[in-house]
């Protein structure tokens, strides 16, 4: 079994829930991948972060973890690569520093967004739009699990290349192999 297949099996076993779940997009799903079940397990979190490292573009100045699920992943990826991290809020704070992204200044920097699970890419679009408004270049997003339908590239129309550690197909194959 390859490292990717082994990771898919372990993530699937830890995170796949069966039931009825409303997604951020408003869609209803019969299956849900509870990413917090791998993000709170140090060994699985480290394996996911390690798998993201080769997906990083060389010109990345900052790694932007999206609130909330992208923050633990970006923290580990940042520690592995020694690249600075940002913690990107869903919206800027209305008090204190009033920042959208906690960490260094994004103006003129290339920011790679780090997300846990992407289905439609809505949170990545929102973050990219806001960061671009602050002068950042955002052209790549990396996710742990791409749950978008097979053949759909949810961020292409927004000029963002999506790179994923695992896809829905990887997880479905892992689940089928376990049956």
Plain-language structure description:
The chain has one domain: Rossmann fold (3-Layer(aba) Sandwich). The strands form two sheets. A six-stranded mixed beta sheet has the order 5-4-3-6-7-8, with helices on both faces. The protein has a two-stranded antiparallel ribbon with strand order 1-2. It is globular, with a radius of gyration of 16 Å. Helix 1 crosses helix 3 and helix 3 crosses helix 4. The protein is α/β, with parallel strands linked by helices and 179 residues long. The model has no long low-confidence stretch (mean pLDDT 93).
Level-2 CATH architecture: 3-Layer(aba) Sandwich
Biggest sheet: strands, sense, closure? 6 strands, mixed
* SS summary, helix count: 6
Cα-atom radius of gyration: 16 Å
Query: What do we call the CATH topology?
Result: Rossmann fold
Distance between the termini: 16 Å
Calculate the mean pLDDT score and round it.
Answer: 93
Poorly predicted parts? none
Task: State the CATH class.
Answer: Alpha Beta
Q: Give the SSE order as H and E letters.
A: HEEHHEHEEEHEEH
Structural class determined from secondary elements: alpha/beta
How big a fraction of the residues is strand? 25-35%
Roughly how much helix do the residues carry, as a percent range? 25-40%
Main-sheet strand order equals 5-4-3-6-7-8
Q: Assembly type of the shown chains?
A: single chain
The global form is globular
* Number of domain units: 1
Number of strands: 8
Domain Phosphoribosyltransferase: 61-144
GO molecular function: glycosyltransferase activity
Binding site for orotate: 119, 147
Binding site for 5-phospho-alpha-D-ribose 1-diphosphate: 24, 89-90, 93, 115-123
């Amino acid at each position: 079994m390859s490292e990717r297949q082994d990771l898919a099996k372990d993530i699937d076993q830890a995170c796949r829930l069966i039931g009825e779940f409303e997604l951020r997009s408003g869609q209803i799903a019969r299956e849900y991948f509870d990413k917090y079940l791998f993000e709170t397990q140090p060994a699985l979190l480290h394996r996911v972060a390690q798998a993201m490292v080769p997906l990083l573009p060389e010109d990345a100045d900052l790694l932007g973890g999206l609130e909330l699920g992208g923050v633990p992943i970006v923290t580990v990826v940042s520690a592995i690569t020694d690249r600075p991290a940002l913690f990107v809020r869903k919206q800027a704070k209305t008090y204190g520093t009033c920042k959208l992204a906690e960490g260094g200044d994004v103006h003129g920097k290339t920011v790679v967004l780090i997300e846990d699970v992407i289905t439609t890419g809505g949170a990545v679009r929102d973050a990219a739009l806001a960061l671009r408004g602050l002068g950042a270049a955002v052209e790549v997003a990396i996710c742990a699990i791409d749950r978008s339908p097979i053949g759909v590239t949810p961020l292409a129309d927004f000029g963002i290349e999506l790179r994923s550690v695992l896809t829905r197909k990887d997880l479905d194959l892992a689940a089928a192999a376990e049956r």
